[in-house]
Design a protein that fits this description.
It is a single chain. The protein is built from two helices and no strands. It is mainly α and about 80 residues long.
Length: about 80
Amino acid sequence: MAVIVNKKNNNDELSRRINADLRTKMTEGVGVIDGETPDLVDESEYVKDFKKTSKFGWVWVVLIILAVLSLISIAFF
C-alpha cells in the first residue's frame, strides 16, 4: 500500500506566516544583534573551563613540524 502526496503551492501565504511566527519565537529571548543570532558556544557547559590559545600558539605548530622533519631525516638519511 502506498500514499501519493502532491505538493501544491496553494499555501504560500500560510507558510510565510508560519515561518515568520516561528522565526520571531526563535529569536525571542535570544540577543539578536543586527539580524544575526548568536551561536552561544562560549556559554555552553562543555567549554566552561577551557582557555583560549595564546598569541604564541603558532610556536607549537612550528615545533611539531620541526620534530616530524627531524624524524624523517633521521630515518631516511
